[in-house]
Amino acid sequence: MQNAQNLNALALISFLFLLFFGINMYLYSIFKLFDLTNNNYKIFNINEQTQKFIRQHIDDDSHLLALAAKQNPEINISFALNQIAAHQQAKQKIPSWYLNDKLVFPPKISMEQCSSEATARYKANLCKGENFADLTGGSGIDFSFMSQNFKRSFYVEKDEYLSKLAKYNFDVLALKNIEIINCSSNIFLEDSVNFDWIYIDPSRRNVNNKKEILIENCSPDILKIKNIILKKSKNTLIKLSPVFDLVELQRKLSNITQIHVVAVKNECKELLVKMEQNCDNNIEIVCVNINDSGKQIFSFNPANEKKIEYDFVQNVQKYLYEPNVAIQKSGGFKSIAQRFGLKAINANSKIYTSDTYITDFYGRIFIVEDVVSFNKTELKTNLKNIKKANITVRNFPLSVADLRKKLNIDEGGDIYLFATTIFNGGKVIIKCRKDI
User: I want to staple 41 with a disulfide (CB 3.0 to 4.6 A). Which of 46, 89, 310, 318 is the partner?
Assistant: First the structure.
């Protein structure tokens, strides 16, 4: 009887101890979660001095700070300078992340290569469904926006540090129904389920940190894994640099349904190649220019582009039209001219003219003031008073630098000079002012 009572007492003490221990561990975990959410550097073992340094110098020049901070050995200067520089870069590139002071930014090279918020949001609008996998998670910018359109999303990244960083940042952003997978895309694909969408942003730098312009030299090699990707996913979106050739991409990749040429404020940023399991080989080229007022979107079929004939004009008319950079990269020159009823001054000049002012044209509009033949007498007579001008060459034997030297004209001002070849083969300089 006494032994039974002792055993019961011992069991009660053990139960109370475990209960007390469990409650303390639970409270500790809650405290740690709260602590990590409110102190974004403790997860990376960054001390208070480093945190304070970052807060105090968040808008200062990181190069000057590097010299001053060496005097204080308690500051993790490399981490601090990276965060300060990345924070400043994010102000324009990823404004919503810039405003969230709990986020930790990735290393410099990742910040340079990551998508902007504008292009990430554009990609997010293209992709919706049940499940999604980002096979090259990286800094997580694209994933953070794209995953919100799916019920289940997988971030896959072979770099352990970037995976941990993404896990932390995604918790700060309160992303739901996501999984972080720290492995290569090849290993992930072998054991994964099927997806509605797969996204890939392959590394375009080789072991010597040189940029690659061939898709087979990217990592992962899209050509080697494209068959398993098409087997695993209904839709695939591949992000590439705008230096890649669109014709080569169409030749090397199969099942392409769309290629998006994406520009931000008339600066070409990326190519997006969409592949589908079931396609009819009818490719659409989508040209997008994102600016503060919205998006200019122009689409065309490359097969139809070849069939279109230019409507040529002998003389330059009242207005000059230059397509935005996305359209220029896409090669849809005949399609854009047909869409807006513009006249071509030469098949290879890629600028257009009209006596009609077209307010919704996808590019820049100029008011033509003069057309000067490219001979010494006319140049001297008609351009002698121009000290500054913005010079563009299209289908012309001289480069901008050479022409600027020849004309002795500095860069800038509100005059625009287009050096080009007109319909009869003559070389001219078209003097314009930009439409306001």
Answer: 46
